[in-house]
Amino acid sequence: LLNLGALERARGDFEAAQGSYNRALGIYEQTLGDEHPLVGLCLANLGNVQSDTGEHAATQLSYARALEIQRHTLGSEHVQTSTTMFNLANSLVVTHDYARAEALMREGLVNFERALPPDNPKFANVRVSLAGLLTETGRYDEAKQQLELVQENLASRGALEQRSAGYMYESFAELYERQGQLEQARAMYERALSVR
User: Could you please report the per-residue DSSP string of 47-72?
Assistant: First the structure.
């Protein structure tokens, strides 16, 4: 059912995906118990679909429960746990809970740094999201530092012209726009479009 849910989500059939994940969740809870890692994985996947459909309160509940289970069963530094932290943090940004979101992003980033090689793309994703949060809360210098770290990482891998770099350029553009640096913002928006 987890694979079916993933396929349905990839096809954009979010209602079917949510149904598959809810059925799998019921089966796992009944057969494995409420605290099994597969229950946490299923909840995280359900949270992804709920996020896709804009169900922010349900998304946060699913991610929070998944995170609690994953911390307990896999440990706080596990990559799967850190990924759920990051997803919950992004959901909290949408509802303007910036303090909790930032704490989770920073914890997840530290965990990724411990568990993954430095060229793993998860670093760029977390740093770009953290930069967006910092920009949104008016902490422009910190946001720029995060984006510069992403830029260095992508440059070291020869990835500045890859599609994933587009998110970084877009975040730079938003940062410059917020600061009234409209020419720099325009240049970064154009750069983002050129690599997508």
Answer: HHHHHHTT-HHHHHHHHHHHHHHHHH
Both tokens assigned to 152: 């260095």
Angle at CA of residue 125, ends 119 and 129, nearest 5°: 145
Cα of 7 vs its chain's centroid, Å: 20
CA–CA separation, 43 and 45 (whole Å): 5
Burial of 107-126, coded b for 16+ CB within 10 Å and e otherwise, reads bbbebbeeeeeeeeebbbbb
Distance CA 175, CA 172 (A): 5
Q: Left, alpha or beta for 75 (phi > 0: left; psi -120 to 50: alpha)? A: left
- What's the CA dihedral at 21, 27, 31, 37 to 10 degrees? 0
**pLDDT tens-place string over residues 72-124:** 999 999 999 999 999 999 999 999 999 999 999 999 999 998 888 877 888 88
Q: Rounded distance, CA 151 to CA 102, Å?
A: 21
- For residue 50 the two structure tokens come to 């709920």
Of the candidates 193, 140, 134, 146, the residue with the CA atom closest to the CA atom of residue 167? 193
Instruction: Name residue 184's amino acid.
Output: Q
CA nearest 155: which of 195, 117, 119? 119
Tell me, yes or no, if the pTM score tops 0.85.
yes
